[in-house]
Design brief:
- This protein is α/β, with parallel strands linked by helices.
- It contains five helices and seven strands.
- A seven-stranded mixed sheet has the order 2-1-3-4-5-6-7.
- A hairpin with a 4-residue loop joins strand 6 and strand 7.
- The two termini are about 15 Å apart.
- The relative contact order is 0.17.
- The mean pLDDT is about 90.
C-alpha cells in the first residue's frame, strides 16, 4: 500500500537521518528533516530529554517539535545503550555520557566510546542491549513504540559503518558489530528499525497513514 503522508523527522543526528529516511520512504511516507521544516536549532533543545525513560524522552521530543513545525506530524526517538554490568548505564544518558557538551558528531562519539572502554576494562559480564523508543505526535494524537537488540560489548572497535556505540556492540543475531553490518543487515535487527516498524504499524492500524486512493 502506498501512502502520501508527510512527517518531520525530529533529529539533528545525521546518522539517524541516514537510517530512517529509507525506512519511511519504503512505507510511502515523505520525510522532512528539521532544516527542511524550517526549524532552527535552539539551545532549548538540550533540555528536552530530561526524563528517566526512553519513552518519556521520545514523547517529549515529539511534542516539542510538533509545536514548532506548524501542524506537521512529527516523529522522534530516544535511544541508547544499556550495559548489564554498569547497571543499565549509559541508558538515557548515552548521548551525553562523556559529559562533553562542547562536542558533537564524531568527536562526541569518540568521547563516549572512550568512557565505555574505560568502564568496561576488566569486566567479565559484557552483555548489553540497544533500546529505542519511537514517538509520533500529530493532529490526531500521539503514539509510542519500543524496539531492542541484544548483544555484548567488544574489547575493541570493529567496522566502519554506523555511528555512536555501534563499533563496540556485537549483535547476537548478526554475529558482528553494528558497525560491521551493511545498512540492510543493521536495518533487519536494529533497535531503531524495530521501534519505527512498530510505530508505523500502530499508525496504519489507527488509519493515521492515509492510503493514496483516499488522499485529497
Amino acid at each position: 500500500m502506498s501512502f502520501v503522508n508527510t512527517v518531520v523527522l525530529a533529529t539533528r543526528s545525521a546518522g539517524k537521518l541516514r537510517e530512517l529516511r529509507p525506512m519511511f520512504s519504503a512505507a510511502g511516507v515523505r520525510v522532512l528533516d528539521l532544516i527542511e521544516a524550517g526549524v532552527e536549532e535552539s539551545s532549548a533543545e538540550d533540555a528536552i530529554e530530561s526524563f528517566d525513560t526512553f519513552e518519556a524522552n521520545a514523547r517529549a521530543k515529539a511534542r516539542y517539535f510538533f509545536e514548532r513545525c506548524g501542524g506537521l506530524d512529527v516523529v522522534a526517538d530516544d535511544s541508547g545503550l544499556a550495559v548489564d554490568a554498569l547497571g543499565g548505564d549509559p541508558g538515557v544518558r548515552s548521548k551525553r555520557w562523556s559529559e562533553r557538551p562542547d562536542l558533537s558528531g564524531q568527536p562526541l562519539d569518540d568521547a563516549n566510546n572512550a568512557r565505555l572502554r574505560s568502564r568496561m576494562e576488566g569486566v567479565v559480564n559484557r552483555r548489553a542491549r540497544f533500546v529505542c523508543a519511537a514517538a509520533w505526535r500529530g493532529t490526531k494524537g500521539e503514539a509510542v513504540a519500543r524496539g531492542e537488540v541484544v548483544g555484548r560489548i567488544t574489547d575493541r572497535a570493529s567496522g566502519a559503518h554506523g555511528f555512536g556505540y555501534d563499533p563496540y556492540f556485537l549483535a547476537d543475531e548478526l554475529g558482528m558489530t553494528l558497525a560491521d553490518a551493511t545498512t540492510e543487515q543493521k536495518r533487519a535487527v536494529s533497535h531503531r528499525g524495530r521501534a519505527f516498524d512498530a510505530l508505523l504499524e500502530q499508525l496504519r492500524a489507527r488509519r493515521v497513514l492515509r492510503a493514496r486512493e483516499n488522499a485529497v
